[in-house]
């Protein structure tokens, strides 16, 4: 069986976007590279690697890169040898542009896979060029960076920053389609979650049902793993957002924050809701109402042409009159993602972010409130449209009270 | 309510180990720091942060550190302001040693949280010392490194390497207890997985059941999230280990590799099995038998005093006589872990690793075989004992054939 026929067999399963979409993405990235004076860019962020090639595997725990060079048609995938078949089955790349490094490079003290990457860059004649790396990307380590520089003494380096992330900020209709699928799954998972928070029930038993709903999806399409697992701080722990779960039980007279996502083919939709078991304190009820009002004000403001900080300002004005003050950002760009974050690290809804909203940008609007010993989260993932931010999910938005 | 009483309320839920165990860990780490000429060490690996303080939250998507200084009793936790309460509820640290940086440091172009960390180091008078950072840890970025150095011009820096990981290599009885719990959960999850692989069934539906079993745990203890999601390459994709799932169906006449873990309070046990739907090819049946023979030979060799490479050699000798050759490592140290990896990045079972095995070390022994268009994985997590490697799980080891 030839490699070509093997690839043809695998393609219906893993290849999500057509060739034209990948060509469009690569052209947009190369355009920005040329503008920034970059000849060759090393992409380490797994979401960026997926965006440019379709590569999808849980192999980012070892160093790997996609290299984009202005003078080469395809991105070049370099990863661990055992993952090279994964690149064959999930990407649109020809065999010459998929390279696996030998296993003795993995997790050693004296040798690093980025040395192999430097040698391949040299072999292709790119070693004297203007190279860029993603200096704040997950999974590109300091040791990797030093090994790369040592292997490429004649190159000029600069920080690529979040160049690919910025290209990803405006979604294609195909991407929006996947996020709408994720939203359908998320509605189901969040309903499961709200029903599952019951006095005396173990947190882990409820999370088991949530994760099952996230992955089962709908009869039409399944769910993917999410870039962050369900977070559900409960009781006093609701004063902080990022705690997960234990096998303790939910208790009457306590709030539980549920921050969940769902994903379809790596594209995420996220949402937070807060459940209260019993009669909630008046302050919590009032705060939930103010948050809902501020959230709607932000959605209304999220039109093309508005800036990120203007959206935050709409929230701030609507909530300030009720005495609610929040220091942290109220949202961020969301889309294709791998652990540990479903945010895209580009736009934030906060003062000072003057990025102008465009149609088909997508945000997770999450104005979480965390006090000394309690908290509340209500959030929506929205699409920027001419009519304002369109929430992708359709669940009721208030505090979920179970008497 | 005073912070002390709040902390007392939360402690039964999140605090897994007693104070004496944390004291022992910290002393062991400080001993190695002194031997390596390190005054102050910045720990970024979430598993290392947990090991030294108990901190447990999905906040590692933003920069955070635990600082260990020879001249200071406690580790110092620094993270995002909204996560500081998480440190209060999950760690044994006093309030003075928990610091949150303001939200405007998060995901900006012109400022980085490591600048805040550098300022705190200066405030504590550690800025002229011999500092060490984990240069190959996940979640410590190149930009973070450069911000830290810029903020500490009078410090001397070196690579801490995997200093804390090496201290973690030998587990306490309490840690082994958590891994045995994980093993009980994993047996249940793997049985669910093997039963769930059926012709015509969607992969996502089977994974939904697996993840539910992983998190539900047993009636006595619940499951935690695993550092890697279930991996189940199927059909031609079984030629590579790290693919996850789609909503395609399992097919008769195809193999599916199931590589799963379970976790209890961040402590992992991992296992791989291979299911074949129908009558498997003779080559696959024979290979499975050879793998089982080699795996047992490696287990028998895994006694205190043996080296990692001797364990691998036992596998190599047992399988070579059947013509099976494998280039990649056959196992690695496993334990407390966060995404993206349940391996500890210290010992590998491969030629050249001369680390001597000690009682209460734990390994995932996974001699995966990946060919051009098929593969097979059978693995065990084992504990080093005087009688050899003791598998923590008790499931049958051969190819799982469903006719």
From TrEMBL, chains A, B:
Stretches assigned to the Creatinase N-terminal domain: 25-170
GO MF, one example: hydrolase activity
Keyword annotations from UniProtKB, A to Z: Hydrolase
Limits of the Peptidase M24 domain: 178-386
Keyword Acyltransferase: no
Entry annotated with the keyword Hydrolase: yes
Xref: PANTHER family: AMINOPEPTIDASE (PTHR46112), XAA-PRO AMINOPEPTIDASE P-RELATED (PTHR46112:SF2)
Protein name as catalogued: Xaa-Pro dipeptidase/ectoine hydrolase
Organism annotation: Caenispirillum bisanense
């Amino acid at each position: 069986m030839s490699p070509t026929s093997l690839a043809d067999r695998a393609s219906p399963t893993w290849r999500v976007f057509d060739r034209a979409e990948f060509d469009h993405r690569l052209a947009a990235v190369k355009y920005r590279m040329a503008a920034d004076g970059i000849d060759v860019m090393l992409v380490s962020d797994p979401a960026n690697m997926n965006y440019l090639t379709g590569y999808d595997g849980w192999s980012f725990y070892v160093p790997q890169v996609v290299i984009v060079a202005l003078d080469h048609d395809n991105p070049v995938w370099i990863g661990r040898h055992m993952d090279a078949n994964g690149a064959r089955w999930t990407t649109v790349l020809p065999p010459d542009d998929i390279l696996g490094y030998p296993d003795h490079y993995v997790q050693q003290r004296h040798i690093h896979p980025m040395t192999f990457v430097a040698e391949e860059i040299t072999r292709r004649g790119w070693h004297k060029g203007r190279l860029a790396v993603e200096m704040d990307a997950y999974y590109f380590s300091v040791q990797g960076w030093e090994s790369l520089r040592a292997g490429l003494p004649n190159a000029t380096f600069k920080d690529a920053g979040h160049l690919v992330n910025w290209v990803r900020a405006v979604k294609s209709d195909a991407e929006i389609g996947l996020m709408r699928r994720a939203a359908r799954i998320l509605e189901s998972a969040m309903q499961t979650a709200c029903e599952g928070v019951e006095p005396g029930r173990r947190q882990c038993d409820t999370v088991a049902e949530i994760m099952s709903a996230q992955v089962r999806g709908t009869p039409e399409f399944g769910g993917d793993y999410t870039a962050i697992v369900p977070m559900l701080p409960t009781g006093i722990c609701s004063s902080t957002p990022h705690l997960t779960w234990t096998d303790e039980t939910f208790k009457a007279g306590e709030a539980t924050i549920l921050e969940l996502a769902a994903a379809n083919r790596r594209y995420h939709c996220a949402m937070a809701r807060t459940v209260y078991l019993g009669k909630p304190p008046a302050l919590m009820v009032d705060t939930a109402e103010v948050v809902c009002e501020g959230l709607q004000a932000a959605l209304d403001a999220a039109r093309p042409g508005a800036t990120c900080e203007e959206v935050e300002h709409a929230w701030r004005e609507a909530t300030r009159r009720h005495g609610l003050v929040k220091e942290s950002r109220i949202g961020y760009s969301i889309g294709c993602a791998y652990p540990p974050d479903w945010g895209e690290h580009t736009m934030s809804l906060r003062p000072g972010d003057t990025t102008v909203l465009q149609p088909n940008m997508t945000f997770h609007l999450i104005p979480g409130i965390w006090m000394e010993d309690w908290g509340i989260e209500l959030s929506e993932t929205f699409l920027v449209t001419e009519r304002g931010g369109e929430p992708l999910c359709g669940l009721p938005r208030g505090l979920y009270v179970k008497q």
